[in-house]
C-alpha cells in the first residue's frame, strides 16, 4: 500500500530538516550546495516518498527579489512544447476553461487564447505582460489546471498542492524534474537561483494522486492527473502519446498552421474594455 500524505503539523519549521515537507516521513542528509552563491544549504532525501528537498528555505525573499530570467535559456522552446501538449490534451479531454498557475509572462496563456481556448494566468511573482487582461477567470471552476515548472518552487509542497487541487478541476497538467537518486551535480537543482527547493520522485506523485483521489500518468518530466470517469480508454491512450517528447515536437508544425481566431476575438474585447473605460472617465 502506498504511504499516505498526512496533515502538516502546526509548526512545520525544523532546526534543520528531519521531517519531509510533503509526507512527513523521516529524511536523511545527502549533500550540501551553495545557494544564491552565498549560503551553504543542506539537501535531504525522504525515506518514505523518496523526494529530495533543501533544508527549510529562509532565502526565498532574496531569491525572488532578483531578475533571474536570463538564467533560463530554455524558456522559449519549453513554452512551445507546453503549448503543443496543453492544446492537444485540452482538445482530447474536452477542456475549454484553463488556468495557468505560475504562468510567468503569460506567453503560454496568450498562445492558448490565440488558438481558441479560454485561458487565464496567475503568477504571484511575475507580471503577465502578454496576458494582462486575462488574470481573473470568467469561470468558477477550470476544466484544466496547468503548472509548468512550478511545483519545485513550493516551500511547503503539501499545503500548496492542496491549494492547487482545491480548484476542483477534472484535469491537471504539470511539469517538473523527477528525482531518482541524482547527486549534487544534477542540473535541475539550479542552486544559483535559490528557487528550486523541492524535487519530487515518482513515488511522491503516486502518493499525491492517491491523496487527492486522482489517476496519474507520468511521461518524462510531464505529470497528468485526472478524475475518475472523465476519460475513456482511447482518450487516455492519446494523452499518453501526446506526453511523449518526440510526439509533441512533431506536432509543433501542426499548431502553427491552425487559424489563430482568438487574436481577433480578444482584440475586439480589448476595444470594448477601452471604450467602457473611456466612457466611465467622462
The helix count comes to: 9
* Secondary-structure content class: alpha/beta
Taken from the alpha-carbon principal axes, the silhouette is globular
Rg result: 20 Å
SSE ordering: EEEHHEHEEHEEHEEHHHH
The CATH architecture classification of the domain at 77-176 and 201-266 is 3-Layer(aba) Sandwich
Main sheet characteristics: 6 strands, mixed
| Strand portion | 15-25%
Give the termini distance in whole angstroms.
Answer: 66 Å
Describe the overall structure.
This protein is α/β, with parallel strands linked by helices and 282 residues long. The protein has a domain at 77-176 and 201-266: Rossmann fold, CATH 3.40.50.150. The chain is 33% helix and 18% strand. It is built from nine helices and ten strands. Strands 5-4-6-7-10-9 form a six-stranded mixed beta sheet, sandwiched between helices. Strands 1-2-3-8 form a four-stranded antiparallel beta sheet, with no helix packed on it. Strand 2 and strand 3 (52-54) form a beta hairpin. Helix 2 packs across helix 3 (107-114) and helix 2 packs antiparallel against helix 6. The longest helix has 21 residues, at 261-281. It is globular, with a radius of gyration of 20 Å. The termini are far apart. The relative contact order is 0.15. The model is unreliable at 7-15 and 272-278 (pLDDT under 50).
Give the secondary structure arrangement, pairings included.
Layout: E1 27-35, E2 39-46, E3 52-54, H1 60-65, H2 75-93, E4 97-101, H3 107-114, E5 118-122, E6 144-148, H4 157-165, E7 171-175, E8 198-199, H5 202-211, E9 215-219, E10 222-226, H6 233-242, H7 245-250, H8 252-255, H9 261-281
Parallel strand pairs: 4-5, 4-6, 6-7
Antiparallel strand pairs: 1-2, 2-3, 3-8, 7-10, 9-10
